[in-house]
Amino acid sequence: MTPRRGLCYTDEVRIVTIDSPRGAWTYSEWRPAHLAGLVEVVWHSIGTASEPRDRHVPDGTLELLMNLGDPFRLLAPRGAEVFRATWLSGVQSGPVVTEQPRRQSVLGVRLRPAGAYAALGLPLAELAGLVVELPDVVGRAADEFVARCRDAPTVEECFRWAVAWIDQRIARGPRIDPVIARAAGEIERSGGGVPIAQLRAETKLSKSRLAAAFREQIGVAPKLYARIVRFRRAAALVRAGAGSLADVALVAGYYDQPHMNAEFREMAGLAPSELAAALGPVVEATERLVEPASLPG
Q: What percent of the chain has pLDDT over 70?
C-alpha cells in the first residue's frame, strides 16, 4: 500500500491525514509564534495503528503528552509504566519505546529546553532519560490542564487551552541564562559540530560550570547535547534517503560511517537502515485549501 496524505490549513493549524502501512490517522499541529524558541509544536494525533510498538528517538526536546484514548505501556526507558493520562518525557539519549493501542488519541506539547525550564521550574537533569507522570512534576496543576483539554469540543480549542496553560507557567517560571541559551543555540546552528572548548571560551565558564549549567537548564551536558543534535540531523537525512550512509555520515559530521552506525545503535537502538525502515518513508504531501477558521478566543 502506498502511503497517502491530504494536507490542509485552517488558519494557523496544519492538518494532515495519513493512510499508510503503519496505520491511518489525522495529525494536527500548531506552532504558536509568540512561543517560538520555547515551544516547538503543539500537536494532536487520532486514528488507528497497525503496529504493536512505537519508537521515538532523541531530538533534544522534552515532550508533554496527554492520552485522550486507550492507554499506552512504556517499554523503554525507565519511568511510569502505563500512560493513562499525562506523561512527561525528559531529554533522551536513547529510544523511547511504547506498546501502543490500536485506536489512539494523543495531545502533545513539544517543549524546547528553555520553555521546559521555565514551565516546569526544576533542573531539567532530573528528567533526563526518564518518562514520568506530569503530576509527579507539577503536582495538582496538572489537573486543570487535563480537565480542560479533555472537555474541549475541538482540537483547536484543546490547543488553545494547552498553550494557555503553558503560557501561564512560563510567565511565572525561571528564565534560562542568556549565556547558556546562546551556547545551546550555537550547538544547534552548527548541527552539533561546534567544539565544546570554543563554547567554554565564548561563555568564559570553566568545564565544570558549563556542564553544570547545561544539565540544569538544558537537561544534559553540552557534549551530549551536541551528540543528540548531530544524531537528529543524521536521522532526518537517513529517513529522507539523502545519499548513501557514508555520505550522510560525512554531512552530519561523523568521523566515518562506522562511527555513525555506533551512535545510531546507542541513541535509536537500531542501525541507520533499520531505523529508516521502522519509521517509514518520508512521503510527499498533497495540499488543499479550506475555509480559514481562527483559533478560539
A: 90
